Amino acid sequence: MNESNPSGPVQRRISPRRIALMGSVAAVAVAVLLGGPSGFKQIPLPTWSNQVQAAETTMQHPADFADLIAKVKPAVMSVRVKMEAQDSSSNEEALPLQPGSPMEKFFRQFGGQDQQFGQGQQQQQRRAVTGEGSGFFISADGYAVTNNHVVDHAKTVTVTTDDGKIHNATVVGTDPRSDLALIKVEGGNFPYVKFADHAPRIGEWAVAVGNPFGLGGTVTAGIVSATGRDIGRGNDDYIQIDAPINRGNSGGPTFDTEGNVMGVNTAIFSPSGGSVGIGFDIPAATAKNVIAQLKDKGQVTRGWLGVQIQPVTSDVADALGLKQAGGALVAEPQSGSPAAKAGVKAGDVITSVDSVKIKDSRELAQKIGTMSPGASVELGIIRDGNQQTINVTLAQMPNQQQAQAGSDQQDQSQSTPRLGLTLAPARAEGAGNQGVVVTAVDPNGPAADRGIKEGDVITNVGGTSVSTPSDVQKQLAQLQKAGKHSVLVRVKSGEGMHYVALPLATG
Predict the structure, then answer these.
(1) CA separation for the pair 480, 504 (Å, rounded)
(2) pLDDT digit string (tens) for 81-119?
(3) 11-16 average pLDDT score
(4) Using CA of residue 201, residue 207, residue 209, residue 215, what is the dihedral sign?
(5) CA-CA distance, 386 to 380, in Å (whole number)?
(6) For residues 317 and 327, what is the distance between their CA atoms, to the nearest angstrom?
(7) Strands, E assignment, 33-165
(8) Which terminus of the chain is more solvent-facing, meaning fewer CB atoms within 10 Å of its CB: N or C?
(9) Which candidate in 4, 134, 149, 361 is catalytic?
(10) Exposure string (b/e) for 436-449, b if CB count within 10 Å is 16 or more?
(11) Rounded Cα–Cα distance for residues 153 and 148 (Å)
(12) CA angle 269–248–239, rounded 5-degree value
């Protein structure tokens, strides 16, 4: 579904320029994994105050991970692909290695023979290249999981199992949105692992096994640093881990201490291209759903509601007259979408799906994304302060579309000091037929603090459509007279439609 979180301050997105895919082809360092176990020695916790005297709390600390690794390592493989050289733009922030550098020697010694080190892209574009990643068996008959970016455009795929044997493999299906792929390895009676059936807890140990720099069977350990991370790649529910992972770890598993796969390594946060201990995994729940569909039909279909949504912050809740923040605010139902056909409107707050409460916009997107096209869902919404339900039949998610907004403006505008904005009719400024365009923003005003920028188009103020600056002034005056402390403004920007709650100045 094309749901987005245009204004979402809920969680800071990490710039895509600093997110590196860990897979194969090309010249630099990128990877992902997790680390660490969870049995503990009996360690008494200290008494923190004289007022709180609890029974002695103990934790167990494992001596090592040897038994766990002996159990799961045979199911992990190194994945090697050959493909036609891609343009440098497909190398996802790859950083070239300089000739004669220590890292060049390291790569040449350990599985980097086919990389081009500082020799430019021209030679790379003329020949086939080899890339490496990781993967793991999920069944004895040879089905295995890896990353989409590891096998994307592959001419041939071979895997090396933990016992050193080399097998040919074919790609069964790929899903670029989740960055997952299912491959089938020739042969049988392979050792395999299972996905975890529960989400990991922050602080839980995790262990990664993979093929960094071509060094197959490498084990690293750490903890789950965070969950529900949004790194700007379509899915916003990544597991963050701190185990050292690098190029070649892509597609490898991260295990919990029971030996189940809690996540699939996919990216690292890396200003330099090397591991800095911030990696991201696709959660087991997501991987299970995607892989099951790839095995069944070779592709993934997702339910699509067709709304742009954003979180209901405390400011937004106040502007809407809600008792508490929560749910997902509909910024815009897309034309012809299931939501629009069912009567969902901009300004509605979706609070539940099939009577199950929705905490925020991200949870709504995740919930709908796991449903099948054609499924009928009951949405609980709040509209104009009243609770009601709407039945929607989901469609299949189309290709992502990006909303566009007007841009360069000139003056001929009127100042709106209450908001710290200078506005002009959008039609007069060539920014569309509806709303008023922002021609200037007071850097010290409330609108600037909340992210409104020049070129944004305001289409609605306090539930009333506006087409001139005087419409905006009139609506603000009425709201202030009614004793409102904030106003909900609907804004069209380069990221699409969203709402912004602005405080109303007194006096």
Answers:
(1) 7
(2) 998 655 433 333 333 334 444 434 433 433 333 333 333
(3) 51
(4) positive
(5) 11
(6) 10
(7) 76-84, 128-137, 143-146, 154-160
(8) C
(9) 149
(10) bbbbebbeebbbee
(11) 9
(12) 40
Tokens 């039909």 locate to 297
Q: Which of 152, 179, 242, 360 is labelled catalytic?
A: 179
Give the DSSP per-residue string, 178-246.
Answer: TTEEEEEESSS------B-SSPPPTT-EEEEEE-GGG-TTEEEEEEEEEEEE--SBSB--EEEE-S---
The whole-model pTM stands at 0.60
Q: Is the pLDDT of residue 12 over 70?
A: no
* Structure-token match 């006096």, residue found: 507
DSSP letters spanning 91-125: GSS--PPPTT-HHHHHHHHTT-TTS--SS-HHHHH
What are the φ/ψ torsions at residue 10 (nearest 5 degrees)?
Answer: -55, -45
- Residue 456 neighbours by CB under 8 Å, 6+ apart: 405, 437, 438, 491, 492, 493
Strand 154-160 and strand 238-241: the pairing is: unpaired
197 is catalytic: no
Q: Which amino acid is at 90?
A: S
The helix/strand count (H/E) of the chain reads as 10, 28
Q: Distance between alpha carbon 351 and the CA centroid of its chain, in Å? A: 22
221: how many CB neighbours lie within 10 A of its CB?
Answer: 25
What's the mean pLDDT in 221-245?
A: 84
Which pair of tokens denotes residue 27?
Answer: 């010249």
Domains of the chain: 16-300 (2.40.10.120), 303-396 (2.30.42.10), 414-503 (2.30.42.10)
The catalytic residue among 24, 78, 134, 250 is 250
Comparing CA positions, the residue from 144, 269, 139 lying closest to residue 211 is: 144
- pLDDT digit string, tens, across residues 449-489: 888 887 888 988 888 888 888 888 888 888 877 777 788 88
CB 486 within 8 A of CB 504: yes
